[in-house]
Design a protein that fits this description.
Blueprint: H1 2-35, E1 49-55, H2 62-70, E2 79-85, H3 92-99, E3 105-109, H4 120-129, E4 135-138, E5 144-145, H5 149-154, E6 161-165, E7 168-170, H6 176-197, E8 209-212, H7 213-218, H8 234-243, E9 247-250, E10 258-260, H9 266-277, H10 286-312, H11 314-341, H12 351-371, E11 374-376, E12 379-381
Helix pairs in contact: 1-6, 1-10, 1-11, 6-11, 6-12, 9-12, 10-11, 10-12
Length: 383
Amino acid sequence: MAIESNLQLFLLIIFFLLLINYLLFLFNVLFGLKKIIPLKTKDIPSEFVSVIIPFRNEEENILLNLKSIQAQDFPKEKFEVIYINDSSDDNSLKILSENMSALNIKVLSVPQDFSPSAHKKRAIRYGIENAMGEIIVTTDADCIYDTEWLKSLLSNFDEQTGFVSGPVEFISEKNIFSQIQKLEFAGLVLAGAGLIGSGRPTICNAANIAYRKKVFEEVGGFKDQMNLSSGDDELLMQKVAKDTKFKVKFSVDQKSIVNTPANKSTIDFYQQRKRWASKGLFYRDKTLVVKLILIYLFFLGITAQLALAIFYGSIFILSFAITVFIKIIIEFKILYEGRKKIFSGLSLKYFLISELLHIPYITIAGLAGSVGNYSWKKRIIKR
């Protein structure tokens, strides 16, 4: 009995320490969200801008994206748009070519032998090599934008700023699965915003980022990441924050939101989250890798506490309940703060359902993304 009691105590201490670590992470996010503030003026930078949009098999979305880009309220002589065809085998290229009307928009195709293992990063790199802009903006071909999106995002640049991350939001649909995804995804974006605000840039989304071309070159671009299929966003941002004197900012303005469709199926959702999780172990900052592993162990610990309750009884039921309750309270505060500042139309109706699903999905996708292959755009990406 003494051995059993000591084991229970040891496990409870481990779960408690993991909870404290996760709470420190959440409080950093909340603190950072309170620090980021909207711009008072929207002065656009004087530099020429290149918007790079890689695409692969986007025939369902690319026309809406093109119309949204062509409707930008931004001086046409100050920016170009470069669509990069990444080996599409549907009608994406044909649709795009037949509907382009603006003179500042062009489409290029990536040569087959150009960094073939890098996938999306090779398309972006090829676009940068053919871009005239001093500031690079990247987004995705399934996105749509406010007419002032480009103006809003770029107004964050000053001489000290090297990288700007913008908000991304799932398009609202009536079904519950879409609403839950929108809520969960908003949490990820707000975590990225809060960490930037607290001076710890960690995550962002390539559907809405901008950076100076000279800063991209200063940190070596993607040269140490070309063997990875993803990481064209946060791995680059982390290098800018760590290796340069330039500032990293988050754009706090609803007009700078990029809207993108939610996943249509649970399989698509699972593959997307596996792809995102696959980047974590390749962060150059190993302290950050350890922090991510501890956060993952926190989620794994919640599941373990529920399982232990079956064998050891009420003490683990209590620890499970306390952990989940505290997690729910703080994460609600983060979403509430984010709704005030960025996502004004975000519904919290399915918050509790989202919280309950959050635990198993992180546990499963986190492990699968770290050790297994995943599919993206009809490609099987190997670890």
